[in-house]
Amino acid sequence: MQSIPDLKHGRRKARIGLRGYIFCCLGLVAALPVLVLGVIQVSKWEAKQLDDVDQERQFVAQTLEQGIGQIVDGHVRAVEALAGQVQTRGSLDKAVLQPMVSSLRARYGGFSVMYIAGADAVSIVTHRQKHIITRRKLYAMLRSVKLSLFR
User: Fold this and answer.
1) Which residues pair with residue 2 across a beta bridge?
2) DSSP 151
């Protein structure tokens, strides 16, 4: 750097020479491609991360769909089995229907209440769940269903 005398304050001013300008330009020429490529790479990583998250969410949704489908299919089978048994017995007598409802509810788990109603929508026979499921038990049941789905 060359210094130029400043006559007002009695100090010399520093001036950037040709070498200083060349050094700054070369620094920018070297740093600019790195910055541009870095921004491009970060945007690619972000897009890949979003794709991974979308795939994971889709997998979770499919797993839930399968689990709910299995539960609904089991419930439909239980209702059809109960309807078939009631139809074959041909009687709406409470003494005949109560053991049938109890045995079907024991065989097909997952129902909190199972009942048979007449044509007037009045319940004839009811079999209720005897214990209340706590959150902890529900969480344990859901984990076991999740683990059985992955096997």
Assistant:
1) 15
2) -
Q: Name residue 28's amino acid.
A: L
Beta strands in the chain (DSSP E): 2-5, 12-15, 113-117, 123-128
Q: Is 101 helix (H, G, I), strand (E, B) or coil?
A: helix
Tell me the chain's radius of gyration from C-alpha atoms: 38
Instruction: Return the domain boundaries, the chain.
Output: 2-149
Cβ partners under 8 Å of residue 8, min gap 6: none
Which residues, 6+ apart, have CB-to-CB distance to 112 below 8 Å?
128, 129
Provide the terminal-to-terminal Cα distance of the chain, rounded to the nearest Å.
75
pLDDT band at 16 (very low <50, low <70, confident <90, very high): confident
CB 123 within 8 A of CB 115: yes
* CA dihedral (30, 35, 36, 42) positive or negative: positive
Give this prediction's pTM. Answer: 0.50
Residue-wise pLDDT for 50-82, tens only, equals: 999 999 999 999 999 998 998 888 888 888 888
3-class SS of residue 90? coil
Q: What six digits make up the tokens of 147?
A: 């683990």
